[in-house]
Design goal:
The complex is a heterodimer of chains A (144) and B (477). By secondary structure, chain A is an alpha/beta fold. Chain A is built from 3 helices and 9 strands. In chain B, helix 6 runs parallel beside helix 7 and helix 6 packs parallel to helix 12.
């Protein structure tokens, strides 16, 4: 993994719009989805996924293993890569929480979007270079 | 013997970029050992130091979680597909919630949970970081609170403003004889703390109202409805719908109980079942109709079970199903509940957009007193009787209640058969109707009014008020 060399993530405008829309739709619960693209750091599309967190969907999200496998299948089948996941923080800053860190996987992007009172807000991108390392913020560019 | 092993994207760099490999092995453990032998970089990502599966890694065999089978010892057959799946989760909660850990004492205490594949230490952590609100610390709330505390739910909230009454003790097992006359909340908090000091008990000494319901319920993951009146039941249902919280419903009457889970967006709500509350006085409460003491033990236990399943995310929640329990026949029945496309709350045609001013319903009887009926207080009735006024005292309770206590000179005309006995009433005389608490007699009064009787009064507070204010020697129930 060359996670350490990556310094920015580019999101095509359609993908960014889809995240904003899905995050607003999920409000007041957390929304989530898969980030898919042709190469590391290049998100060309997103796949919305149901938040399977049963008890506290407002403050937590869970992607079920089956949904994970389906998203990965979708990417693999089209010659793309599963690059990571996005989730929303309803009425909470777009900054990863200790919960996010505990669950983060090296090699998978973590993209967080704040949703304030139903309106999608700031979006930030993060990665963990290694299992025991803290989050490192990546520059997020929206463009083609 | 060949097993196809699926490598997830983030681990592919450690496996030469491959998405899948074929490996030999008769168990999950053997296949993973073969995988790690081939790609040593995977070891640290898959297995903990003691050789067990890391907690953020799921292993699926042919689409089934091996933790639900025999874990690493799960046997494999030629052609099986083994998938390594990263657990993807997170969320806005900072610190406390997801970062909980279990102490040595807690691990010992919950050991029978920890060894169940559906719970494990991860599930026990979920329980610890969860919060459940009990609306009511009565018959249903008692067993539910005890089991939820024993199970290790981290934070239990209780809403109640009642004091312990002697007549509660036949079924409300949270409270004991020494607490009679003291707030139920104090008794509940003391009992739950003694049972499990690891649980935080939060007490809310208030009635649930239109003004506080949303704020109160918002602080909890799951709500357990143990109310004894329609006012609070509709309020709980509506607030849970607006907050999208699962509402674990239960109700009891005499020998029969029912339970369901109303989970917004996943199934029907209480209003899909009963769009509007019944008219006051139509449905008797436990105080009026009685209840078998052990009945709430069964129903409250079912509610606690459902709440725990919701927190753990296991099994099939009682969503879209109404479970009916008949203790006399000792039978359970299940009715399918569908979302009502006309539901005033949760359908597309919804008309209710905020919490309502809930009209006073029968329930505990306190509602019926607010009906605009002609009333007479117990002391006033006594004064007029003593003054020799000709009053026709009509007891609208049931014969077995009549056998416990009654007003001198009264006659019995149970509410259910009142309509057939109207000819026995003299419209020229003033009738005073009474029941236990004043709720059923208010209903009876309405019936008489409709039939044209004008000189009718309702004894406010029923025989309970009479015993309290006039004749303390009268036994009450």
């Amino acid at each position: 993994m060359s996670g350490g060399s990556r310094s920015f993530v580019r999101l095509v405008p359609d993908a960014a719009e889809s995240i904003r829309r899905e995050a607003a739709r999920a409000y007041p619960a957390e929304g989530c989805g898969a980030l898919i693209g042709p190469a590391e750091g290049a998100v060309s599309e997103t796949q919305p996924l149901p938040n399977r967190e049963a008890a506290s969907p407002r403050t937590r999200f869970t992607v079920s293993p089956r949904d994970y496998l389906a998203a990965e299948d979708l990417a693999d089948a089209r010659g793309l890569r599963l690059l990571g996941f996005w989730h929303s923080h309803p009425d909470h800053p777009a900054h990863p929480s200790p919960t996010d860190r505990r669950h983060a996987w090296p090699g998978l992007l973590t993209l967080v979007i704040a949703v304030d009172g139903g309106q999608p807000g700031e979006m930030t991108a993060w990665e963990v270079p290694g299992q025991e390392e803290p989050f490192r913020q990546l520059d997020l560019e929206i463009g083609l | 013997m060949s097993i196809r092993v699926r490598i997830p994207t983030p681990l592919r760099p450690h496996a030469g970029g491959q998405a899948a490999v074929s490996l030999p092995g008769e168990t999950v453990k053997a296949v993973l050992a073969a995988l790690v032998a081939q790609a040593p970089g995977l070891q640290a990502h898959l297995l903990a130091e003691d050789g067990s599966l890391r907690s953020f890694v799921n292993v699926y065999v042919n689409g089934e979680d091996v933790r639900a089978r025999s874990g690493l010892e799960t046997p494999l057959l030629d052609g099986d597909e083994l998938a390594i799946v990263p657990a993807i989760a997170g969320g806005a909660t900072a610190g406390t919630a997801a970062e909980v850990d279990l102490s040595r004492e807690e691990i010992a205490r919950y050991s029978r949970h920890l060894i169940m594949p559906e719970v494990t230490i991860e599930g026990q952590r979920r329980l610890k970081r969860s919060s459940i609100l009990l609306v009511g610390a009565g018959g249903l709330g008692s067993p539910a609170a005890l089991y939820l505390a024993a199970a290790g739910v981290g934070r239990i909230g209780i809403v109640d403003f009642d004091v312990v009454d002697e007549s509660n003790l036949q079924r409300q097992i949270l409270h004991d004889t020494g607490w009679i006359g003291r707030p139920k909340l104090e008794s509940a908090a003391a009992r739950l703390h003694a049972l499990n000091p690891h649980v935080r008990v939060e007490t809310h000494a208030t009635a649930l109202t239109r003004d506080n319901a949303l704020e109160l319920l918002a602080g909890y993951d799951v709500v357990v409805d143990g109310t004894d009146n329609f006012e609070t039941r509709y309020l709980t249902n509506d607030a849970c719908y607006f907050l999208k919280k699962p509402n674990v419903y239960g109700s009891i009457f005499r020998f029969e109980g029912q339970a369901s889970v109303f989970w917004p967006d996943r199934g029907p709500c209480y209003r899909c079942l009963y769009p509007e509350p019944p008219p006051p006085g139509l449905v008797p409460s436990c105080a009026e109709g009685g209840v078998l003491g052990i009945l709430p033990g069964v129903i409250g236990g079912i509610q606690a079970t459902e709440a725990i399943k919701i927190v753990l995310g296991v099994g099939e929640p009682l969503v879209g199903r109404l479970l009916l329990y008949d203790a006399l026949a000792m039978r359970f029945e299940e009715l399918k509940l569908r979302r009502n496309p006309e539901c005033p709350l949760c359908s597309e045609k919804a008309t209710i957009r905020e919490l309502q001013d809930y009209p006073a319903f029968c329930g505990t009887g306190r509602g019926a007193e607010e009906e605009p009926v002609e009333e007479i207080g117990a002391r006033e009735l006594k004064r007029r009787l003593d003054a020799g006024e000709d009053l026709d005292l009509v007891d609208v309770r049931e014969p077995h209640e009549w056998a416990i206590c009654r007003l001198e000179g009264a006659r019995l005309l149970p509410l259910g058969s009142l309509a057939e006995h109207l000819h026995e009433l003299d419209s020229a005389r003033t009738s005073v109707l009474y029941c236990r608490s004043g709720a059923r007699s208010a209903k009876a009064l309405g019936l008489l009014r409709k039939a044209g009787f004008r000189r009718v009064l309702n004894l406010r507070g029923g025989v309970l008020a009479w015993a309290r204010e006039v004749d303390p020697s009268m036994p009450t129930y």
